[in-house]
Input
Amino acid sequence: MKKAGILNRHLAGALAELGHGDGVLVCDVGMPIPRGPRVVDLAFRAGVPSFAEVLDGLLDELVVEGATAAKEVRDANPEVSALLDTRFPDLEPVSHEKLKELTAHARLVVRTGEARPYANVLLRCGVFF
Output
Protein backbone atom coordinates (compact mmCIF):
# COMPACT_ATOMS: atom_id res chain seq x y z
CA MET A 1 0.00 0.00 0.00
CA LYS A 2 1.24 3.48 -0.86
CA LYS A 3 1.92 5.69 2.13
CA ALA A 4 2.16 9.07 0.40
CA GLY A 5 1.07 10.94 -2.68
CA ILE A 6 -2.13 10.14 -4.54
CA LEU A 7 -3.78 7.17 -2.86
CA ASN A 8 -6.78 6.79 -5.19
CA ARG A 9 -5.84 3.66 -7.11
CA HIS A 10 -7.65 4.66 -10.29
CA LEU A 11 -6.00 8.05 -10.42
CA ALA A 12 -2.54 6.77 -9.44
CA GLY A 13 -2.74 4.12 -12.15
CA ALA A 14 -3.91 6.59 -14.79
CA LEU A 15 -1.07 9.00 -13.94
CA ALA A 16 1.48 6.20 -14.25
CA GLU A 17 0.35 5.62 -17.85
CA LEU A 18 0.90 9.23 -18.97
CA GLY A 19 3.72 10.24 -21.26
CA HIS A 20 5.31 13.38 -22.69
CA GLY A 21 2.75 15.57 -24.41
CA ASP A 22 -0.31 13.85 -22.97
CA GLY A 23 -3.17 16.08 -21.87
CA VAL A 24 -4.80 15.96 -18.45
CA LEU A 25 -7.94 18.01 -17.86
CA VAL A 26 -8.68 18.94 -14.26
CA CYS A 27 -12.28 20.11 -14.24
CA ASP A 28 -15.25 21.25 -12.22
CA VAL A 29 -18.49 19.30 -11.95
CA GLY A 30 -20.12 21.23 -14.79
CA MET A 31 -17.54 20.67 -17.53
CA PRO A 32 -18.89 18.45 -20.30
CA ILE A 33 -16.69 15.38 -20.67
CA PRO A 34 -16.39 13.99 -24.19
CA ARG A 35 -16.21 10.32 -25.03
CA GLY A 36 -12.64 9.17 -25.43
CA PRO A 37 -10.45 10.29 -22.55
CA ARG A 38 -10.14 8.10 -19.48
CA VAL A 39 -12.11 9.69 -16.63
CA VAL A 40 -11.36 9.55 -12.92
CA ASP A 41 -14.31 11.13 -11.14
CA LEU A 42 -13.35 12.35 -7.68
CA ALA A 43 -16.52 14.42 -7.13
CA PHE A 44 -18.18 13.55 -3.84
CA ARG A 45 -20.33 16.56 -2.95
CA ALA A 46 -20.53 20.11 -4.27
CA GLY A 47 -17.12 21.59 -3.49
CA VAL A 48 -15.53 18.32 -2.36
CA PRO A 49 -12.80 17.85 -3.33
CA SER A 50 -11.99 21.35 -4.44
CA PHE A 51 -10.31 22.24 -7.70
CA ALA A 52 -7.31 23.67 -5.80
CA GLU A 53 -6.81 20.50 -3.72
CA VAL A 54 -6.89 18.22 -6.73
CA LEU A 55 -4.75 20.50 -8.89
CA ASP A 56 -2.05 20.82 -6.22
CA GLY A 57 -2.06 17.07 -5.63
CA LEU A 58 -1.58 16.44 -9.35
CA LEU A 59 1.17 19.05 -9.62
CA ASP A 60 3.05 17.23 -6.83
CA GLU A 61 3.03 14.09 -9.00
CA LEU A 62 3.33 15.32 -12.59
CA VAL A 63 5.85 17.18 -14.70
CA VAL A 64 3.82 19.85 -16.49
CA GLU A 65 5.26 21.75 -19.45
CA GLY A 66 2.19 23.82 -20.26
CA ALA A 67 -1.36 24.63 -19.26
CA THR A 68 -4.46 25.98 -21.00
CA ALA A 69 -7.60 27.45 -19.44
CA ALA A 70 -10.69 29.31 -20.55
CA LYS A 71 -10.18 33.07 -20.67
CA GLU A 72 -13.68 33.48 -19.19
CA VAL A 73 -12.27 32.41 -15.80
CA ARG A 74 -10.76 35.91 -15.39
CA ASP A 75 -14.13 37.62 -14.92
CA ALA A 76 -16.32 34.73 -13.76
CA ASN A 77 -14.06 33.22 -11.10
CA PRO A 78 -11.27 35.55 -9.87
CA GLU A 79 -10.18 33.14 -7.13
CA VAL A 80 -9.49 30.28 -9.55
CA SER A 81 -7.97 32.75 -12.01
CA ALA A 82 -5.49 33.89 -9.34
CA LEU A 83 -4.71 30.26 -8.46
CA LEU A 84 -3.98 29.43 -12.10
CA ASP A 85 -1.79 32.52 -12.44
CA THR A 86 0.34 31.47 -9.47
CA ARG A 87 0.70 27.88 -10.66
CA PHE A 88 1.17 28.66 -14.37
CA PRO A 89 2.86 31.98 -15.20
CA ASP A 90 2.68 31.10 -18.93
CA LEU A 91 -0.95 29.96 -18.88
CA GLU A 92 -2.44 29.86 -22.37
CA PRO A 93 -5.92 31.45 -22.42
CA VAL A 94 -8.47 30.18 -24.96
CA SER A 95 -12.23 30.45 -25.24
CA HIS A 96 -14.28 28.01 -23.18
CA GLU A 97 -15.53 26.48 -26.43
CA LYS A 98 -11.94 25.91 -27.60
CA LEU A 99 -11.04 24.34 -24.24
CA LYS A 100 -13.93 21.89 -24.66
CA GLU A 101 -12.63 21.01 -28.15
CA LEU A 102 -9.11 20.43 -26.81
CA THR A 103 -10.49 18.21 -24.07
CA ALA A 104 -11.54 15.65 -26.68
CA HIS A 105 -7.83 14.99 -27.30
CA ALA A 106 -6.88 14.69 -23.61
CA ARG A 107 -5.67 11.33 -22.36
CA LEU A 108 -7.14 11.79 -18.88
CA VAL A 109 -9.93 13.83 -17.27
CA VAL A 110 -9.95 14.31 -13.51
CA ARG A 111 -13.33 15.59 -12.34
CA THR A 112 -13.35 17.44 -9.04
CA GLY A 113 -16.29 18.43 -6.87
CA GLU A 114 -15.68 22.11 -7.63
CA ALA A 115 -18.98 23.94 -8.12
CA ARG A 116 -17.70 27.37 -9.23
CA PRO A 117 -17.62 28.34 -12.93
CA TYR A 118 -14.65 27.81 -15.24
CA ALA A 119 -12.54 25.90 -12.69
CA ASN A 120 -10.89 23.90 -15.47
CA VAL A 121 -7.33 23.57 -16.73
CA LEU A 122 -5.79 21.36 -19.39
CA LEU A 123 -2.29 20.29 -18.41
CA ARG A 124 0.33 19.14 -20.92
CA CYS A 125 2.70 16.58 -19.48
CA GLY A 126 6.43 17.12 -19.74
CA VAL A 127 9.47 15.02 -18.87
CA PHE A 128 11.63 15.16 -15.76
CA PHE A 129 14.95 15.25 -17.60
Q: What stands out?
A: Strands lie at 23-27, 38-41, 64-70, 92-94, 108-111, 121-125. The chain has five helices and six strands. Helices lie at 9-16, 51-61, 73-76, 78-87, 96-103.
